[in-house]
Description:
alpha+beta; Lipocalin; eight-stranded antiparallel β-barrel; 10 strands; elongated
Amino acid sequence: xxxxxxxxxxxLPLSLASFALAQHQTFTVNPDSSQVAFSLGGNGxxxxxxxxxxxxSIDFDRNAQTISGSVVVAAGSGNSGEPSRDKKMxxxxxxxxxxxxxxxxxxxxxxxxxxxxxxxxxxxxxFTLHGTPHDLTVPMQLHIDGANLxxxxxxxxxxxxxxxxxxSVFILxxxxxxxxxxxxxxxxxxxx
Length: 192
């Protein structure tokens, strides 16, 4: 019986350590499977399109509820299906020659991230657009299946209020806010 108790005593710290490590993970985004979709209303028309996720790596700890890392989107990758409109968006609105990236750096989250299945959390961080940081909270739906994680969120960017050029001209008026649907797909691994 003493041998069993000794083995249990030695195994307990190891199992607790592996449990703690499982709580601290890194989500590495796969850019080819991820996407940023945008939707912009206007009088008599509606524009939809996508941007390419350039990179992303998010570290989080379920126990401490900490989060860090970044997601970076290529500002010049916007594609609405109309090359002349996309060129105007890139040069006049986003000024991609000077601001090639749009990023989100998470600082905290509220809610519980389940070890498997579905979770809903509120991620607060800094959204940098046109070189200017803005505080933003994004509601995210997470799905974890083994080592695979999919994160989806919807939020609105008041781009004109944030200092970007209003692309409206004479009769053609567009909304001053753009809707964003973010889909991040990637792999989970233990953090070091």
